[in-house]
Amino acid sequence: MALDNYSDRFAHVSGSYTFSSSPSTAFKELIPKTDVKMAERITMQFVNEAAGAHKVKVFGTCRNGAGTVGGTDWTQIGDTIDVSATSSSMKSISTTGLISFAATASGTNGQAMAYDAVLQNL
Asked: Given a cut of 70, is residue 52 above it in pLDDT?
């Protein structure tokens, strides 16, 4: 998934998560730790497939071997993103200088959140 060399221009990652605890204010990993050393920008789209609202936090780190996403090795990038029921939200960030990025989300029992992210090396 990560960009391997400068001739690569784009990489794509996608997935989904179904929340298992009801109701939950705890943030769980949505986008796993992703290497962005060779990327300059990432655009993420969060798609709420559920009837309830979700919150998303995007994190970045400059540390090699960073621990658990959302832990002390990670810094939240921007504000918490509110994704209303059956809607989507998009966010773009510069990844220049970051080693990795990741995202966490909160939701309620059995409700799903999907994501797509495009890494760009301009």
From this structure: yes
